[in-house]
Amino acid sequence: MSNKVTIIGAGSVGSTIAYTMAVQGLVSEIVMIDVNTKKALGEAMDIRQGTPFMQPCKIYAGSYEDAAGSDIVIVTSGIARKPGQTRLELCQINVNILKSITPQIVKYAPDALYVFVSNPVDVLTYAFNRISGIPESRIIGSGTLLDSARLRTRIAECLSISHKDVHAFVLGEHGDSSFVPWNSVRISSVSLADYRKHLNYREDFAAELNLDEIENYIRTSGGKIIQRKGATFYAIAVSVCDIVKTLLNGSDSVLCVSSMMHGEFGIEDVCLSIPTIVNGQGIKGTLLPDLTPDEVAQLQHSAEVLKGVISQIDYSQN
């Protein structure tokens, strides 16, 4: 079966997504588009020369015309976040870039599923909903999927258990107003609050978790990585490939991704992350967790933070 994916943006994130898709054998054709054509050509060539050791995959740099027939379009283009800069400070600059891209990509890939990775991802996902004409069920932001992976990783490290046994989500904005609904966290089938009392170790060495420290770890991880190595791209690439895998497999899966809200928890007209049912057609629906009143208030606060930014953005097409 042939599957074609177009990646807009051949920077560290876009090229690592292309490389990871090729290594995992997810698709048969990858088109890389970037305003810096030379960079796109180099990245595609470098990945392509490794394909004899992978599943067959056609990888090349192209133009928007080459996106025709794409099953999925992944948008990673934009100005990268600089050390000390918040995701929301990037907003108008990257919205302007999106406004220049949208008419070109929609013209050639009107039937594709769109996955947004560029930051601020919730704002850009919302902007594309506003300006593209693509049905919102086919527009997905990577949202807090990576934040949720960071949460699972940290809990697993603290409890010395496999991350596969940790079931947890980060909700809200992919940014400072996100939060963890701790009552929903499960270790296998056991709530986090009850985990220690259900242990049957010969020696009791399960750690007590510092929940504030874990939430701080999630919120600051991206900034720390950027400070230390200049950019984040490995983990986000793997998480985006998980979205791609879900879209291509076709069966329903629950991912914590960003999409347009329609009254869930009293929230309207904003894109943020809650557990979302995704399949081969895109977004099928949402799976509403049982939140406490305080957690509902935190989610609504996150929505208001994003709406405050959205209200200041110029979406007009010049």
Give a verbal description of the structure.
The protein is of the alpha/beta class and 318 residues long. The model has no long low-confidence stretch (mean pLDDT 92). It is 38% helix and 18% strand. The strands form three sheets. It has a six-stranded parallel beta sheet, with helices on both faces. A three-stranded antiparallel beta sheet has the order 7-8-9. The protein has a three-stranded antiparallel beta sheet with strand order 10-11-12. A hairpin with a 5-residue loop joins strand 10 and strand 11. The chain is built from eight helices and twelve strands. It has helices at residues 12-24, 37-48, 91-108, 121-131, 145-159, 211-229, 234-249, 293-310; strands at 4-8, 29-33, 58-61, 72-75, 113-116, 139-141, 166-167, 186-187, 190-191, 253-262, 268-279, 282-286. It starts with a strand and ends in an 8-residue tail after the last helix. The longest helix is centred in the last third of the chain and has 19 residues, at 211-229. Helix 1 (12-24) runs parallel beside helix 2 (37-48), helix 1 crosses helix 7 (234-249) and helix 3 crosses helix 4 (121-131).
C-alpha termini separation: 40 Å
The unreliable regions are: none
Rounded mean pLDDT score: 92
- What integer value in Å does the Rg equal? 20 Å
Q: Figure out the total of helices.
A: 8
Proportion in β-strands: 15-25%
Strand order, largest beta sheet: 3-2-1-4-5-6
| Percentage of residues in helical conformation | 25-40%
Q: Specify the structural class.
A: alpha/beta
Order of helices and strands: EHEHEEHEHEHEEEHHEEEH
Shape annotation? globular
Counted beta strands: 12
The profile of the biggest β sheet is:
6 strands, parallel
